[in-house]
């Protein structure tokens, strides 16, 4: 019997690559995206709780089960904390964090029935907080903590939960970032310099297909850890984040992205 998966943000970037890798691995994959329109590509806004619940029910009604959820939906904003509108930060959380929460809440009763798995896509920006992208880092840090807590809550039901932290990935995410240079005169041009450096790193980053293959591999593991980083470079960065004193780590990050 083929396993049934839902991948959010599944029509572009890491989500699309993951959906393709899972399909190649034998899963029947349904994607949630704002665009939607095809039989297994459902039009779902993850900020709409009723729409999310309806879509998950539609998948289970069609297939009779649900084995895997991969939460990839998200976007980025950048700018100085001082000049970022609170409403913009809240909108980011509504998609990146609470969008994931809504999907998982709707999916959990069905995953309990199959002993299924949840994979939440986080970022290395969670343990390594990025200046001028503070709110994005915060959404990903929240995903990590949520995933670890939920893993313990769901474990007695045979449901496993993990968060996977990509680093720089060459996708349309970079072009779609909502950038604000408000206050850059006050900050001496540091906002735009920081974001420009980050975007260069992203454009030269890992192809999304590599990240998708990694996520599909995690989906197929017998057991999973609470957190994963994709690629040895980013595993090393995450290790440094654990080992270095906070002052030293933040000084290094400042040298890279706050000059």
Automatic annotation (TrEMBL):
InterPro entries: KR_dom, NAD(P)-bd_dom_sf, Sc_DH/Rdtase_CS, SDR_fam
Keyword vocabulary terms for this entry: Oxidoreductase
The organism's place on the tree of life at top rank: Bacteria
Domain Ketoreductase, first and last residues per copy: 3-173
Record flagged with keyword Oxidoreductase: yes
GO terms assigned for molecular function: oxidoreductase activity
UniProt keyword DNA-binding, yes or no: no
SUPFAM superfamilies, alphabetized: NAD(P)-binding Rossmann-fold domains
SMART domains from the UniProt entry: PKS_KR
Family according to the record: Belongs to the short-chain dehydrogenases/reductases (SDR) family.
Full protein name: SDR family NAD(P)-dependent oxidoreductase
Lineage: Bacteria, Bacillati, Bacillota, Clostridia, Eubacteriales
